[in-house]
Amino acid sequence: MKSGLERFVENIVRHTDCSKEEKEDLYEELLIHLQMSRGQLMEDGLSKEEAEKKAMALFGNEGEIGSQIQQAMFPYRKELMFTLSVTSILYTVAAYCLQLFWEGNAFIMWMVVSMASSSFIFYLAVNKSVHLNRKRWINSTLVLHALIYLYGGMLSDGLSLTILPIAAGLVILLNLSLLYLTSLNSFGSSQALNRDSKIIHALNITAGIFIIGATLFIVGGSLIMIGGFSPIMLAFCLPALIWIGLYIAQVKALKKNKRLAYGLAVVPMLFIVGILLIAFLPKLMY
C-alpha cells in the first residue's frame, strides 16, 4: 500500500505535461525531498504520521505545486495557446467571409475543421484534465492545426488579398513555436535532449509539416480532378516517405557522426525551398 507521501507526490506529478520518463524522474526527486523533510521533523520529536502530514502541509497544495512546476517547465505556453486559438478563430471567420462574399464559394468543410481544432486548443489551454496525456494531445492537435492552416493558406492564396496568406503564415509560425516549446523542452533527466538533438528535431518537425501538408494537398487535388483513387497517387507520397527515412537516419547518425546528421537535415529543407519557389516565384516574376 502506498504511503501518504507517495500519493501526495503522484497528485503533483499528475498535474504536469511531462513524458512518462520525465514524470518518473520528477516523482523520484520530489519524493526524496519530502522524505528528507519528514525525517527532519521526526528528529524534532514528531511521530512518523505527524511528520508526514506536516511535511506535506509545509510543501503546499498538490494542484498549485503541480501548476508551478508546469509553468516553470513550459513558460508562457498557456498564454501562447490562448493567442493561437483566438487568432485562429478570427482568421477562420475572416477567411470564410471573404471567400464567401469575394469569390461566392466558401470552403465550409475547412471552416468546420479549422474551428474545431482552434476550439480544442482553447479547451486544452483552459481546462487541465489530469486524466489525459496532455503532452501527446497538445502535440497531435498542434500538428493537425498546422496542416489545416497550411491548407487554408493555399486556399486563400487564390484571393487578391495578400493579407490572408500572410496571416495564415503567422498562425503557422506561432503554431510551430508552441510545438517546439511542448515537444523539445524536457525535465532534467538522463533522456533530456541535448542542443544538437533539439536542432535536428526542430528542423524535421518544420520540414514534416510542410512536406506532409504539400503531399495531402496534391493527393486531395488529384482525387478531385481524377474523381477517384489511382495507383499513380502513391508516387505523391514518396516525399513524405523519404522525409521519414531521413528523419530516422538523422537521429541514428547523431550518436556517431553529427556532420552527417546535419547534412541529411539539409535535404528536406531544400525540398521545402523548392515547394515555396514553385508556389510563389511565378507570382513574383509576373
Q: What does this entry look like structurally?
A:
The chain crosses the membrane at residues 80-101, 107-125, 137-155, 161-181, 202-226, 232-249, 261-281. Keywords: Membrane, Transmembrane, Transmembrane helix. This protein is mainly α and 286 residues long. It contains eleven helices and no strands. It has helices at residues 4-14, 20-43, 48-59, 62-73, 77-103, 108-126, 134-156, 163-184, 195-226, 238-253, 258-285.
Give a quick summary of the entry.
The protein is an all-alpha fold and 286 residues long.
Order of helices and strands: HHHHHHHHHHH
What characterizes the major β-sheet? none
Give the overall shape, derived from the CA principal axes: elongated
Low-pLDDT ranges: 188-192
The fraction of residues in strands falls at: under 5%
The number of distinct helices, counting runs of at least 4 residues, comes to 11
Average pLDDT taken over every residue: 80
Based on secondary structure, the structural category is mainly alpha
- Straight-line distance between termini: 74 Å
Count of DSSP E strands?
A: 0
**Percent range of helical residues:** over 70%
Instruction: Specify Rg, calculated over alpha carbons.
Output: 24 Å
